Amino acid sequence: MSAVSSGNPPEKKKTAPVLRPAVSFVGTGPGDPGLITARAIEAIERAAVVVTSDPTHMELVDRYAQHGPQILDAQELGNTGRVRGRRLAALAGEYGRVVRLLCDDGILFAPTTDEAAACRRAGMSFEIVPGVGLPAGISAYTGTPLTDGRVRSVRLVAAGKTAHLDMTPHRNTGHVLAGSLVDIEDSVCGLIDAGWDPETEVVICSGGTTATQVTADTTLGALRRHVADLAEVSTPEERIVVLVGPGNALRQELEWFESKPLFGWQIIIPRTKEQGAATVEALAELGAVGTIVPTISVEPPRSPQKMERAMRGLVTGDYRWVGFTSVNAVRAVRNHLSTLGLDARCFAGIKIAAVGGVTAASLREIGIEPELIPSGEQSARGMLEDWPPYDPDLDPINRVLLPRADIATDTLIAGLQEMGWDVDDVTAYRTVRAAPPPAPIRESIKGGDFDAVLFTSSSTVRNMVGIAGKPHPRTIVACIGPATAKTAEEHGLRVDVLAPEANIGALITALADFARARRQEAKDNDETPLRPSQARTPARRRKRS
Predict the structure, then answer these.
(1) Is 0.85 topped by the overall pTM?
(2) How distant, in Å, are the alpha carbons of 180, 329, 354, 406, 457 from that of 299?
(3) pLDDT digits (tens, 9 = 90+) for 510-528
(4) How far apart are CA 336 and CA 4, in angstroms?
């Protein structure tokens, strides 16, 4: 029997809204910011309040938080997990989404359980987002397996006064001890007193998973000497990790992190923040830490009328070619077009030249595919080598637009004119010397705390010396081309590395090759490889490589 319709559509069931947990307990991993999970990033992005007790977490907040959250120190919320949990619940009720950041996985030896239970008792919802754990992180980044086909268990010990723990040797078990320098010394004494063989092989690590990681292979009996060495380069509060397991003998085969060619190198990047970001990422892949020190500031031209006329000339077909000699030129043209209500469509029918791959990539971002990218040297000289001469039978007009900086050289203009082109050289932007960097950066530059500096133009040399002073003699100076190297030498700098091609990728590769050769030279001489900043005396003059 069929149902009789009443003529009215059936009511739709209301779907309950998806409720987000009010408090997120987030494990941030053992140190490397790149090890944070996708779920953790999502939580930080939505945070109204971030609670942490570790200053290193600020890098994650600066990178991922989208709403300018309020930052609170966990100790401000109370001295016990129960009290802090009640305060977290109150903060969530007042501000909304609260994120509690914790080191490592956020679970083991962490206050998460007490604080989360207090949130639940206060009637506030929560979630626990685990991070990469300390044992896995340090084991991976030191190349020291804690288990194998024979060893099937791992023991994690919070180092310190361990008399109340069972410290007797456990066969077929990997061990991880973590704590401060003093805690590690106490645990070593406890292990030996409990019957551990002083000749037991161990790996000691500080700064694990970061560019400051220092790892040493030693024995339990000799561990105190390495603790003393670490005391010279570590703070008393810095966490030290000792690994005891079957993988100690495999470190030579599995070590990958500290063997990166530029591992631990602190490198100055005298470029704008926008230009230097990609360089920082490229250096990080090789183990280095890049510090951007802006030496120039990019500003609009004093008189924009000529640039506006050039942009309108694109629409009216006044140009056969447009040559872009920098990413800044692409940005300037894009901004001027936007101001006039125009976009990339005004380049229809016009040939586009880009000085190199980075500039070409920035053009593609706005929908423009360049016809000309130098096949050789990525510079004005390289553009001229591939630029076709003007042919009246093929080219309806002979005008070329060059939107450039106010301090650009005339090499490109002269070369194009010799090939029959009429060049419209327009100032698209001005470059002015940036303000001096903060005093600590200036002191580090002059004091030799940086291992290398990457100079990508003559102006970066002049401006950096002008605003920050000369780099220390032991700092490795790497230059992108002969002209930049000449300027550096004119300012009294020793040039150690010269890129074989005039692009930032070739410059970084050349520096990495230099570092490999330097390390191998030290090993061949039975010396401990040191970074330039660790040398006690200025490095001797080396041939360009």
Answers:
(1) no
(2) 49, 11, 21, 10, 18
(3) 999 999 999 999 888 877 7
(4) 67
